[in-house]
Amino acid sequence: MRKLKIAVTGGIGSGKTALCRFFQSRGYKVFFSDAVAKDIMASDAGVKKKIIKHFGKDAYNGSGLNKEYLASKVFTDPEKTKLINSIVHPATTLAVQKMIEKEFETKNIAFVESALVYEAKIDKNFDYVILVTSPDEAKIERVTARDKVSADRVIERMNNQIPDDKKKQRADFVINNNSTLEELEKRGEFILRLIESISSGE
Known about the structure:
This protein has helices at about 15-25, 35-45, 45-55, 65-75, 80-105, 135-145, 150-160, 165-170, 180-200, and strands at about 5-10, 30, 60, 65, 110-115, 130-135, 175. By secondary structure, it is of the alpha/beta class. It has a single domain (about 5-200), classed as 3-Layer(aba) Sandwich (Rossmann fold), CATH 3.40.50. The strands form two sheets. It has a five-stranded parallel sheet, with helices on both faces. A two-stranded antiparallel ribbon has the order 3-4. A hairpin with a 2-residue loop joins β3 and β4 (about 65). The radius of gyration is 17 Å and the shape is globular.
């Protein structure tokens, strides 16, 4: 049996989380990089110190990380996006790697959801990368409904991510999420069977 680390990536609103939920429903562990990163930003003293140094004391408030404030600073400025990623990504990558090693004590396949696999240059950390793509109009519609933000804010975030066309050239598997959730899961099932056969050596 071969141990496989699989990244699931895609732009904001592409449907990668829906695909990951499907993998979870099939009994597989999915580590969500965004959740790990938020935990690190809230609890890691070294990371907090660097964020406050570069983004100011308002980056944190009485309830912890001030997400709205940080988002307003980061998502409109590519250089600030790179800066915060350089602070948070190394610690996040290390934490996720430790979680995967723990999972591999009993399982052979682990999935990691990460929007910024290529932006953070961590694709080489994985055996395979699954890219979920979706038309821009669908992404904007999903995120404005989900996050209650304007279309302009979503477009700002999309512009800070590598375009899908470039990611397609590098991904091992590409799922076009251009139909229903059922169709997305069917495509996910096909790729899951391939990954399971690779892991088992069939």
